[in-house]
Specification:
Number of strands: 9
Order of helices and strands: HHHHHHHHHEHEEHEEHEHHEEE
Radius of gyration: 45 Å
Largest sheet: 5 strands, mixed
Helix content: 55-70%
Strand content: 5-15%
Structural class: alpha+beta
Number of helices: 14
Distance between the termini: 58 Å
């Protein structure tokens, strides 16, 4: 017993907090109201008034009927607006009210079914609501059936429910599920864009750390040379004491600068592999190409122009362009030929890596290496171009200055275009079930009525035949003139007929002349006894 209470306790807590959560949710929805949503509600109310209430004012001039139409219109609007709070209850109430009255309510139930299908989230709750709505519709049909029964009456009843309730309900569910899917995809895309921006910043910072390491190694190498030459100069016997002291100060300053540089920038080596940074210059591109060739890459190196001294960060950037280009080519264009070009133009150094299209196209990478490369080129004062070639293949090219140019002060933009994510898995099919069921309803209704329309209905009595038959005529002569063939698909034609003459045998037929303004079917009856026609009359079936 204790375990049962413990299991029920969380449910009791949820029930206690449900009203507060309900109010909080709908208060938030009320705050999110927009003029468009208000206008949409007003248009729906106007449609209900014009299509379900106004025709009643035109048809009825009785004051009592007029007030009844006013009350009915208020009821329709109230039930429709109830869907905003309790969509399932509103739909069930609307089904009973609309199908229990004799006139009006079609627009109301259409809008109500669509709105309820849009707002009921759980498919289990939707299924239960649809089943209960069908049960209420069947009860209302029995109470206020339009003179139809039997298989045809059941088919008409299901048709009305399918087209007026089920179809808009399923369409509403489909629209809600597709809207939820689109919103989820937008949120996912925004999250991916934010994450990509963060990763791009991290990649740029990492590349800046590498540049700082390169500068540390290059500058440290030069300071070491200064320190060594200053120490050697201090040992010169021809040097005076004043000059020897100055050389010692210079040597001490170089050593101190080396220690400070190692302390400030050397900490960046913690997460980086130990590599000879001094050798990663434009002159080492030949070794880089030779290493790629030994690894099986079909690569060629083209040099042009007159080499000239380059700033350290420009030389390192040229090496990194060649390294990144070869890495991308071996990763994404395996087996394709690669060409590395290092050309000294009159005003700038041009470094280019291009590869032919691969035999098998590899999936695209994240592109973070290119982001870091762009940061390095930018800090060197150059320009980087990355993209596919018109004939296929890929090209990385950079233009680097010969001077030590300061980078632009603005940070590069993080709003690179992000490829839209296509729905995958089960979410790709969100809403398809609802629209498929709606299609099944439409096909079933159209197919059913097409079949019914193709069936010949010949067993009806024309007014001429009815008037020509007289009481007292011979039974065999009358039966010979009565129609034969397929009966009209209507309800039991005997239930509303008066009592049959005692000892007589009666035949019932549907009359050919009908008044469709009446919610009933005209039925004629011929009764025979003793070989004669003893009675003929008519009645309204279904009133």
């Amino acid at each position: 017993m204790t375990s049962v209470v413990q299991r029920l306790r969380p449910e009791v807590a949820d029930i206690r907090t449900a009203p507060a959560a309900f109010l909080r949710t709908h208060v938030e929805r009320f705050r999110e109201l927009t003029p468009w949503r208000v206008a949409r509600e007003l248009v729906a109310i106007l449609a209900i008034v014009l299509m379900d209430v106004w025709p009643g004012f035109i048809a009825n001039h009785d004051p009592v009927s007029t007030w009844w139409m006013v009350v009915m219109g208020i009821g329709f609007v109230a039930v429709y607006e109830l869907r905003l709070l309790f969509p399932a209850i509103a739909l069930l109430l609307g089904v009973w009210v609309v199908f229990s009255i004799e006139h009006g309510g079609v627009a109301t139930i259409l809008l109500l079914a669509y709105g309820s299908g849009y707002r009921i989230v759980s498919w289990q709750r939707s299924l239960v609501t649809a089943a209960l709505g069908l049960a209420l519709h069947m009860l209302a049909w029995d109470v206020n059936a339009p003179g139809l029964g039997g298989p045809f009456g059941s088919f008409v009843m299901l048709t009305v429910y399918g087209m007026v309730v089920a179809l808009p309900f399923l369409v509403g569910r489909y629209v809600a599920q597709r809207n939820a899917l689109v919103a989820a995809l937008h949120d996912r895309e925004e999250t991916m864009v934010r994450e990509r921006k963060v990763v791009s910043r991290q990649v740029r910072l990492r590349e800046r750390n590498r540049i700082a390491q390169d500068m540390h190694d290059s500058l440290g190498h030069r300071l070491s040379l200064i320190s060594v030459h200053a120490g050697a100069l201090s040992l010169d016997p021809d040097l005076g004491d004043r000059h020897r002291d100055a050389v010692q100060v210079l040597r001490s300053a170089a050593l101190t600068a080396m220690e400070e540089l190692r302390g400030v920038i050397g900490v960046l080596r913690r997460d980086e592999p130990d590599e000879d940074q001094v050798r990663r210059t434009v002159d080492a591109v030949d070794e880089l190409v030779e290493g790629a060739r030994r690894a099986g890459v079909r690569v060629s190196l083209v040099r042009g122009g007159q080499p000239r001294p380059l700033p350290a960060k420009v030389s390192h950037a040229a090496y990194r362009i060649a390294q990144e280009g070869l890495t991308n080519a071996s990763k994404h264009a395996s087996g394709a030929s690669v060409q590395v070009t290092v050309k000294y133009e009159p005003d700038a150094l041009v470094v280019e890596v291009r590869n032919n299209p691969p035999r098998v196209k590899a999936p695209k990478g994240a592109g973070f290496g290119l982001i870091g490369l762009g940061e390095r080129v930018r800090l060197a004062g150059g320009m980087l171009h990355v993209g596919e070639l018109p004939a296929g293949g890929f090209r990385i090219a950079a233009v680097l200055p010969y001077e030590d140019t300061a980078a632009a002060g603005d940070e590069p933009a993080d709003d690179e275009p992000v490829e839209r994510v296509k729905p995958t898995g089960i979410r790709k099919w969100a809403g398809v079930g609802s629209i498929a069921l709606a299609g099944v309803v439409v096909v079933a209704v159209i197919g059913g009525y097409t079949w019914i329309g193709s069936q010949p209905t010949t067993k009806v009595v024309s007014p001429e035949l009815y008037d020509s038959v007289r009481v007292g005529d011979d039974e065999s002569a009358v039966r010979a003139r009565l129609p034969v063939g397929a009966d009209p698909l209507i309800a039991n034609v005997r239930s509303a007929a008066p009592a049959e003459p005692e000892g007589a045998t009666c035949e019932y037929f549907v009359a050919d002349d009908q008044k469709y303004s009446l919610r009933a079917t005209k039925v004629v009856r011929f009764c025979f006894a003793g070989g004669k026609l003893v009675e003929k009359n008519s009645h309204q079936q279904g009133t």
